[in-house]
Design goal:
The complex is a heterodimer of chains A (112) and B (118).
Chain A lengths: L3 E4 L2 E5 L4 E7 L4 E9 L5 E8 L4 E4 L2 E6 L4 E6 L8 E9 L5 E3 L3 E6 L1
Parallel strand pairs in A: 2-11
Antiparallel strand pairs in A: 1-3, 3-8, 4-5, 4-9, 6-7, 7-8, 9-10, 9-11
Chain B lengths: L3 E4 L2 E4 L5 E7 L6 E7 L5 E8 L5 E2 L8 E7 L2 E6 L8 E8 L9 E3 L3 E5 L1
Parallel strand pairs in B: 2-11
Antiparallel strand pairs in B: 1-3, 3-8, 4-5, 4-9, 5-6, 7-8, 9-10, 9-11
The chains are: A mainly beta (112), B mainly beta (118).
């Protein structure tokens, strides 16, 4: 059974810092991996999706990497802003069911 | 991109009543939709997979008679919480996968429904 772990659980940083959020998974036979953002009381917004054959994806200040063999993905946020404050969730889609397994998320606060 | 609309955003109901939550795929047809439940500061727990034209597949531990799922069309799935009790209070989110983009199999989520049972 796939298990997804996200570290750290919470992070509070001053504006402008570069951040790294970590996601690890136990079964490397994945189809793809997706990073989401969730604002309080809101649904999920997809940030980046990395297919199993890819090593990284970039969108603006966000960069996500994938190392399937070691069961890890990182989300890099450059020059953090207060508007980046949210919970970031990692979801792993395994082959077969194609249903994502979520980590518990990293709660990020960027203060001015 | 794919859009999933969920309604209502929040609902307060009395204990013992039933509540229906709708999930619509606006610009694509979804033969499969997924219903999740999220407790405070917890991750998303898959409750059931909704299949158009057939019975939903429920995850272990989820009561079928409590959480009724209907997927009558390719763009609409509904979750009805029957005889709701305060312990059913939670955040419910639906999701669908756009079949037009099979290579990515990316999931799109609704905005969620905050259910409070008093």
């Amino acid at each position: 059974k796939q298990e997804v772990t996200q570290i750290p659980a919470a992070l509070s940083v001053p504006e402008g810092e570069n951040l790294v959020l970590n996601c690890s998974f136990t079964d490397s036979a994945i189809y793809n991996l997706q990073w989401f953002r969730q604002d309080p009381g809101k649904g999920l917004t997809s940030l980046l999706l990395i297919q199993s054959s890819q090593r990284e994806q970039t969108s603006g200040r966000l960069n996500a990497s994938l190392d399937k063999s070691s069961g890890r993905s990182t989300l890099y946020i450059a020059a953090s802003q207060p508007g980046d404050s949210a919970t970031y969730l990692c979801a792993v889609i395994s082959g077969g069911s194609y249903i994502p397994t979520f980590g518990r998320g990293t709660s990020l606060i960027v203060h001015p | 991109g794919a859009v999933v609309s969920q309604h209502p955003s929040w609902v307060i109901c009395k204990s013992g009543t039933s509540v229906k939550i709708e999930c619509r795929s606006l610009d694509f047809q979804a033969t499969t939709m997924f219903w999740y439940r999220q407790f405070p500061k917890q991750s998303l727990m898959l409750m059931a997979t909704s299949n158009e034209g057939s019975k939903a597949t429920y995850e272990q531990g989820v009561e079928k008679d409590k959480f009724l799922i209907n997927h009558a069309s390719l763009t609409l799935s509904t979750l009805t919480v029957t005889s709701a009790h305060p312990e059913d209070s939670s955040f419910y989110i639906c999701s669908a996968r756009d079949p037009r983009d099979p290579a990515n199999y990316g999931y799109t989520f609704g905005s969620g429904t905050r259910l409070t049972v008093v």
